[in-house]
Amino acid sequence: MDILDSARKVFDIEAQAVLALGSKLNGDFEKTVKLILQTKGRVVVCGMGKSGLIGKKIAATLASTGTPSFFMHPADAFHGDLGMLTPDDIFIAISNSGETEELLRLVPFMTDNHNVIIALTGNLRSSLAQAANIVLDISVEQEACPLQLAPTASTTATLAMGDALAVTLMHARDFQPENFARFHPGGSLGRRLLALVKDEMIVNNLPLISPEADFAELVNTITTGQLGLAVVELENGVGIVTDGDVRRAFSKYNKSVFDLKVSELMSVSPKTIPVDSKMADAFALMERNHITSLVVLDKHKAVGILKK
Hints:
Rossmann fold, 308 residues, CBS-domain, 11 strands, 14 helices, 46% helix, alpha/beta
């Protein structure tokens, strides 16, 4: 088989495996999300081998997006780590076959400890599925492995199901960029979100313009500023003209556009943010309003521009 064709076949098989998960979602997924939202405990993810590696990623994604979670290796659990669990914890067990011995050995403890068991399995008739309180179907028609032995499409489907849980929980918790920053202070995004607007805003060569300026000066200001906009300095606040406003003006007025003043084209109530605000607040404001730029004000005067 051609090398590129082989790779494309893998992508096709795994993509189909993920797409098929949508049709398998049912009330059990909703129950899982609601239980996690309601619990006073943590989510404990457990799996063996390749399922364990995927489980580690699922636990990490949950933890970093607002759902307290950790990964527990089933062998370590059976040798003392079960002491980490409280009755309030939710136990997610991952096994494509549903017959992983190391996981099944933990079921009696979970039952006696009153833990909710959620099984991510590809075998709905398996021992794990029968023992679980809730079952999420991660079955796939075929593995990408030509021998149908190495976990490939099944691990991709499992990872996608974990991501679906994490993202749905994020929506339910209204998880915002500032929350993400608190859990990622060491990363570049985390550091930026925790910084202040005055530390990140653009201050050099600001595209400032008078409301009395003509259209030609406006175009020149936007072009030289290289930010896609011009900030109009008003007596008490600012206005704004974007490159989109310029294009629409050309379309509407044709050659007569050159007779217009900036005051006739500007938006008089642009989204702004105080200079001492947190970057997390700025990103949240841009996210809510579906914009990528903010004018930064210091006592109603434009002192910078913030780009997403």
